[in-house]
């Protein structure tokens, strides 16, 4: 079998990563695991995932899932104390602000975080999972939409028996801000001020930028959600060419089909046409200054 290749989708929340991984899952050469970073949390029924009871997208608990069950018996069941799937990092706003202005100063710090003892254990778990998944599925590509930029860097720098390619999926900062505020309102969470939320989104993007500079140019694609949603066919051609993936018919809908993915947007459970949604602009009708400020941040 050819050396397996992980396609890691690096993005902020509410950026369209679930759409992209669902599109790529339609390839006969690929298997999508969804957000692998959240596997441990789903097993413990902790953190994000309560809306689907932390189950696999097939509807079953992971230990009972026909796909994940055998894999977890070889990994999680044998050594639960050392089974970690999410890297540890915690930057405060001031640190992220410094990174936004001077990203080159943060590169060594990011590498140190990736090489910490805790995060080395995470990568050991992920290395094991990637290889077992590749062997179990026989697929050339594993799609991991974990999003986390630090995890993307750790996986890329400490890979073992597989190759890693990264897709940095970006979305309009104002759209992400509006979507996050809407999500918090729907889930009865305390919302931040619009300007503060927008700065947090900007800082996260700059963190992704810093990580992108530590990846070889041939191993990363930068893509906009807006282009993915409106010119899906053209964006897929870019991926086919860059990652040597066999072309497949461009899907018109986002839908699950015998998938066994972890986490993702709740909307993945219903069949939806792939189209651009600009309803987020309504949240800025009374915040013109923030709207134009966000447009300026998009260009940085």
User: Structural class of the secondary elements?
Assistant: alpha/beta
Strand order of the largest sheet: 2-3-1-4-5
User: Overall 3D geometry?
Assistant: globular
Helix-strand pattern: EHEHHHHHEHEHHEHHEEH
* β-strand amount: 5-15%
**Rg from Cα:** 19 Å
What's the total number of strands?
7
Indicate the multimeric state: single chain
Number of helices: 12
Low-confidence stretches: none
Distance between the termini: 43 Å
Mean pLDDT, nearest integer?
94
Helix fraction? 40-55%
Largest sheet entry: 5 strands, parallel
Features:
300 residues; alpha/beta; 5-stranded parallel beta sheet; 7 strands; globular
Structure write-up:
This protein is of the alpha/beta class and 300 residues long. Helix content is 43%, strand content 12%. It has helices at residues 17-24, 39-44, 68-74, 93-101, 107-114, 117-137, 149-157, 173-186, 194-212, 225-230, 232-243, 288-298, and strands at residues 5-10, 30-34, 141-147, 163-170, 220-224, 253-254, 272-273. The strands form two sheets. The chain has a five-stranded parallel beta sheet with strand order 2-3-1-4-5, with helices on both faces. Helix 4 (93-101) packs across helix 9 (194-212), helix 7 (149-157) packs parallel to helix 9 (194-212) and helix 9 runs parallel beside helix 12 (288-298). The protein is globular and about 55 Å long. The relative contact order is 0.21. The model has no long low-confidence stretch (mean pLDDT 94).
